[in-house]
Amino acid sequence: MSRDTLSTSRYAMKCLAEDHRSSTTSLISFGASTVDNAVGGGLVRGGLHEIYSVATDHIGAAAGFAVCLALRAAGSRQILWVRQDFLDTETGRLNASGLFELGLDPARIIFVRAPGAEGVLRAGEQAVRCAALGAVIIEPWGQPKILDFTASRRLSLAAAKSDVPILMLRASASLSHSAATTRWSVQASPSRALEANAPGYPAFELNLLRHRGGTAGHEWCVEWDRDQGCFQDRLRFEAAPLSRPVVSISRDRSAAAGTAIPKLSRAG
Amino acid sequence: MVVEKVKGALRVMAVDQRASKLGLTRGLTLADARARIPDLSVAESDVKADVAFINRLAELCDRFTPSVALDPPDGIILDITGCAHLFGDETNLRTKVSSRLSHIGVDVRATIAGTPGAARSLARFSLIGIASQGKDEELVRRLPVAALAGLERDTVVALLRAGLKTIGDLADRPSQVLAARFGQDLVTRLVRTLGRENARITPLRPLPAIIVERHFAEPLMQAEALEGVLSSLIDDAVCVMQERDEGGRIFEASFFRSDNAVRRLVVQTGRPSREAALILRLYRERLDTLVDPIDPGFGFDSIRFAAPVTEQLKAIQPGFDGGIVDDDTVSDLVDRLIVRFGSDRVLRFEARDTHDPDRRARLVPASNPSVSADRNRVMPRTLWPTPERGEPPHRPLQLFNPPQPIEALAEVPDGPPLRFRWRRVLHEITRAEGPERIAPEWWRKTGGAQARDYYRVENAAGCRFWVFRQGLYGQAEARPRWFLHGMFA
Q1: Chain A, 107-126: which have a CB under 8 Å from a chain B CB?
Q2: pTM of the model
Q3: Which helix H or strand E contains B431, and what residues bound it?
Q4: CA atoms within 13 A on the CB side of B371
Q5: A27-67: per-residue pLDDT in tens?
Q6: Which end of chain B has fewer CB atoms surrounding its CB within 10 Å, N or C?
């Protein structure tokens, strides 16, 4: 066989293999049409997805986004969560009731507490090789030396092999070189106020910084709808706000009470 | 010479050979002994250390038979039923035990007899090495009455005064008479010592359900060889378990080093298992992560693999949809993680019936069978409160414990804060909901805890927090304090 024919047949094989891959790889869809359209239907399931929070105040939002994304990916399967011990003091403990209120039954979570970053990565890699899991969330703290390009590549390959997504929550870390499939920067977004100016549904401002095999640099604002179990576009709400009940104003109180100078009392 | 304080006087408890040649005996007061030989070297007795030492010796003897019992204060009984042939014969085994113990400087008197009672008396009061089959009673009869196990000093004196000097004398008397005069206890002891009744020993370590072991002609040193042996031992054990339709939940490998050290490694599985590959993998992981790796030193004499507890395990046929297979791999993963991190680090959430947010959830080991995800079992467990449709989350995703103190400024005494300072950052509140009053559980001793008024607040950037005011205005303290308890998604 001549060299040319060999290379062409090799090329053909490669194309076939890629075709095969793209037809079988499953995607994690968001449910929000703007995001799904922009990322081509959803994120690649078997991949490493890094989630950064823009500031320490927004760690709650980043963790919330990770939970929602894991829920979208896992279906009814179990989720493994690996957390470095140090995070408990820095960002608070994982609260089971809060998870439940986001739609994730805590009974579905296997929670692993690792003493250091190395343990987090080891547990994460071991877990992501188990194809029976729905998703793996790992939380190393800061910028550990051990989490280099090679480590992220290992996680990424393991995820691709088992087709289980691994979400890496990077609390208080700066962006670094990695082999992640996607990289997100997440911050909390002001929610749509409910009755009496109460905080509304969880809302996130997402910034897709990197997307292997897709376009990056998008920004969206989405809201998590627990009852539907999916993300909703925020733009749509803003364009056409849903009708909802408005607080009735009692007769003996003026509607302009809010404009009066509030009486301040110092506390704390 | 060792002394101990008995009834206010220091008495000699033990003497070495030189001291006994000088005529010192047990029970002498120290003052008397000093009067006879002025330059005595005396040591205070340390009962705890003695016990620890005899336990270590028992551990050492574990390599000869799994069934080892203590015979306080200074004896060890080995049940060598079915073990002697592994070391050649009984004579060989006895020499081996004796020489091993002598090597570490212990004076040994070892006797092999048909029953533990006879053996312990013969070892202490005669020079007989091995009582041949069926000769137990004949040999024991010649021993003095003091050889009866656990006899009080007074009883011995009384028996001697009655002219009963040997065990044989006692055995010839009708047992009713002895029981009437000295109690039934004496008769029981007599029968046991004569070997007429075989009382089983209570082993220090309970006998495992399944046990396989291998002894080496030469001490083994290479790690690969060790793993090979372990793997073949596991295979053997798995064969036994398969025959019995059982699976083990705990496995223990004991490595007996030639210099008498014993290293035991335990692995546990979440559910009964008899998969050789799985068990071996757990062991590999365990060996990898040991803080102090197994040091072969001068090599290992023998390796033992045991399954202390086994449970019924029927062979499972996976369903057509592979449902069982799925569940199995998750529990396998949990097992592997437990081996690496310990069972207190691989956890599962469990709801508790309380309204205290800090205590609402409990983390329990994932290996705990009562909580393991058994899909077919309906458990009367506490459930999470189902959130109402269309309501935003009312509980934060992350909870600080203890709550973080903040400086807050409220509009009205009972209102939500307008702004607060947390970790030196000022947060302007744009939306707030509350209060939700959560009172402490007065039926628990909470040490003067106060009711908390919780608010869900959102700052200008969109971060949502859970803050509370401790105590009420116009009550007790001059000014209630504010805390940040959690962060919402």
Answers
A1: 107, 109-115, 119, 122-123, 126
A2: 0.63
A3: strand B425-438
A4: 19
A5: 899 988 888 988 888 899 999 999 999 888 899 999 999 99
A6: N
